[in-house]
Structures are given as structure tokens and as C-alpha cells.
Amino acid sequence: MNVGVEVVDQRFEFPFQNEHFEKLRGLVFEHTGITLGNEKKQLTYSRYSKRLRALGITDFNDYIDIIRSGDESEIPMFVSAITTNFTSFFRENHHFEFLVEEVARLLKTKQSIRIWSAGCSSGEEPYSMAMSLLHAIPGVETADVRILATDLDTEILAKAARGVYTDERFDGADKQIISPWIKRGRGDNTGLVLMHPAVRKMITYRQLNLLGPWPMKSPFDIIFCRNVVIYFSKDVQKTLFNRFSANQQKGAKLMIGHSENLAGVCDSYRLIGRTIYEKM
User: Fold this and answer.
1) Among positive and negative, which fits the CA dihedral 200, 206, 209, 214?
2) Is 151 one of the catalytic residues?
């Protein structure tokens, strides 16, 4: 037995040692703020071995050098490979029900309403927002109600902006809400669904790193940041929620994921509903 020599896991097509994992998770944190625990070694290998194959290289050190060099064509692929993009239409539906109530209330006193879907992934969240509002609030399509949808992953954002989904993505969704706002494909497009222009008009998609500069100037009335911060360290969470707070006025609302909470993270909000917070 050779003491101090790491045995390469035979499950790996490419040699992948602890030093590779440590370097990659450091780069992941640098570029995304996501903290990868030790249990994510296999996942990290799985995600980035695909990039090695795509680039035609066989050594993780070479790939790490590419990322460290700041390669503009590979960095987006590096980010896209590790970010998790699981989402669905009307996920945690109580948030969309509250959204409708809040926007209807705000429209009585405000001329413009700004909503932010932070970490929008492939678009199901902002489209669910828009369909809920269009269904429940008469005339909202002519009001100044805008949704900003941002994500770190440019590839998934492009998919969201196209607004095309497979029909089964809408399984379980309330047909009364969705039917007027989707167009089902025919012929070669059978099985595909295109979002209605009125829905798409309400949403602006932009690439944004939540840990980088924010170009937005107007405060947000409502922010959705759901199932995003679970990948961040507590220090990063504190920074992020304090920045959200700085971009909202008193009474503005914040929605987070069902497994997230602000206890010990940010004291600028008070809990008013199930994972629904109000800026104090």
C-alpha cells in the first residue's frame, strides 16, 4: 500500500482526484456563489466530465486552466453545467395566489408595479406569474405591470425567452388559468406549447449574477427568490437578502422557497404568510 497516494476511482472515465474537486468547487463558488459540499464530488465529476468530452480534452487540470484563464466562451458553459434548473409551472401555488391579491391591491394606489423573478431558470416561474395576473385581474395587460426575470445561466435564459414547452409540462396546472394564454402546436409541432404574446410581453429576461453588480435602479414591489439560496453559504445569503432589502421599500414583499427561511440571515423582513415576507 502506498501511503499518501490517492487511488483514482475506477468509476471515473477521466482521472479525478480530490485536488481536482477542490479546485473546481473553488471556481464554482467564485463564479456562482454556490457552495458544493463533499458529498457533491460525484455530481461535480458528472457535470464537468461532459465539458471535457465536448472540448476534446482528457485532463481536468487542462479544464481548470481554461476556466482560470477566463475563457469567455467556456465560462457560461461552466456555470450552466453546475447550476440546477429544476422548476415547474405554478410550483408552490400559494405564492401566485398571493401575488394576484397583492398586485390587485397595489393597482388601486400605484401606477406602475415592478416584480422580480430572481433565479428564473427556464421561465416557468415568471410565466406562471404573468398567466395568474392576466387570468385574475381584468385590464392588467394594459397596466404598467412588468416582470423582470433573471438567471445566471445564459443557455437556460434563452430557452425561457423562447417560451416553448412540451405539453406535459402543464400537467396538473389549472386549465382555466392557462388555456387562454398558451397556443398548442399542430402538425410537426404537435406536443409543443407556445406562450401567448400577451404573456411574453409582460416579462423581460436578463442575464444576471446575483453576486455581481445589479443595474436595476427602480425598487421592486415584489421579489420571488425561491429555491436559490439553498446552494449558498450563510454569509452569501446574508449579503444577498440585505441587497434585496436595499432594493425594496417598506411594505414590499419577498417570496422564498419552502425549505428556506430568513432566521439569522436578514432582519429587514417580517413573516406574514407561508414563506412570504414583508419589508419592514
Assistant:
1) negative
2) yes
Q: Which of 25, 51, 114, 151 is catalytic?
A: 151
Angle at 190 between CA 189 and CA 192, to 5 degrees: 70
pLDDT digits (tens, 9 = 90+) for 41-73: 998 999 899 999 999 999 999 999 999 998 888
> Does residue 226 contact residue 95 with C-beta atoms inside 8 Å?
yes
- Domains defined along the chain, listed by start: 18-82 (1.10.155.10), 94-162+195-279 (3.40.50.150)
Interior angle at CA 237, CA 234 and CA 239, nearest 5: 115
Q: Which residues contact 11 (CB under 8 A, 6 or more apart)?
A: 42
- The predicted structure's pLDDT at residue 38: 86
Active-site annotation holds for 186: no
